[in-house]
Design brief:
- The structure is a single chain.
- A six-stranded parallel beta sheet has the order 5-4-3-2-1-9, with helices on both faces. It has a three-stranded parallel beta sheet with strand order 6-7-8.
- It has a single domain, classed as Aldolase class I (TIM Barrel, Alpha-Beta Barrel), CATH 3.20.20.70.
- Helix content is about 45%, strand content about 15%.
- The longest helix is centred in the C-terminal third of the chain and has 16 residues.
- The chain is built from ten helices and nine strands.
- The protein is of the alpha/beta class.
Length: about 210
């Protein structure tokens, strides 16, 4: 199973900003136990690449690198063991470097022109970012009309309360969010709360079935 297929199964991707490598395994334990065996580790801290390496080598969780802005970061993330890459925007050089490395890349889009560019690059799974500031589900629905083959991962401003609204849309393959991995809990090493919030998220999704 590819990483993209796994994300489509799990449906929610925790977006993580982690400052300390020592918390990588406890975080992975909490997410796996809570029922979300995946994470997007944003390249926003000095520890991010080490965190990706630690979590990716476990084998029980799908790990991606987020906030991938440059081809150098593509190389670094792939070298660290990332299973997939996420970018906040569309950059052809970043996409081509990821494709050359054989790693799934999910670029950010917000306009029809960017969706069209993604399709021309051979991609049909994209990140819709920033989801809520950019118009939320109404824009996803509008883009779905002319691009019925494209699947979106809305990220940015989505909460547990609005999660199911997004997941119910046929164009949405997954949602990215940080409500189950709040920075305050990660900084404090409070992974019991992370596990509880993750279970709440899974329970909320199950109500859609």
């Amino acid at each position: 199973m590819t990483s993209l297929q796994r994300l489509s199964q799990l449906r929610v991707v925790p977006v993580v900003v982690l400052d300390e490598e020592k918390y990588a395994d406890p975080l992975a334990d909490a997410l796996v136990a809570g029922g979300l065996a995946c994470a997007e580790i944003t390249l926003r801290t000095e520890a991010s690449l080490a965190v990706i390496t630690t979590m990716a080598r476990r084998g029980d969780i799908v790990i991606g690198a987020g906030t991938v802005l440059t081809t150098e970061q593509v190389d670094q993330a792939v070298g660290a063991g990332a299973h997939f890459l996420v970018s906040p925007g569309f950059d052809r050089d970043v996409i081509e470097r990821a494709q050359a490395a054989g790693v799934t890349i999910i670029p950010g889009v917000v306009t029809a022109s960017e969706v069209l560019a993604a399709l021309r690059a051979g991609l049909d799974h994209v990140k819709f970012f920033p989801a809520i500031p950019a118009g939320g589900l109404s824009v996803v629905g509008a883009l779905h009309g002319p691009f019925p083959s494209v699947r979106f991962m809305p990220t940015g401003g989505i909460t547990l309360a609005t999660l199911n609204d997004f997941l119910a849309h046929p164009a949405v393959f997954a949602v990215g969010g940080s409500w189950m991995v709040p920075k305050s809990c990660l900084d404090a090493g409070d992974f019991a709360t992370v596990g509880s919030l993750t279970r709440d998220t899974v329970t909320q999704m199950e109500s859609l079935l």
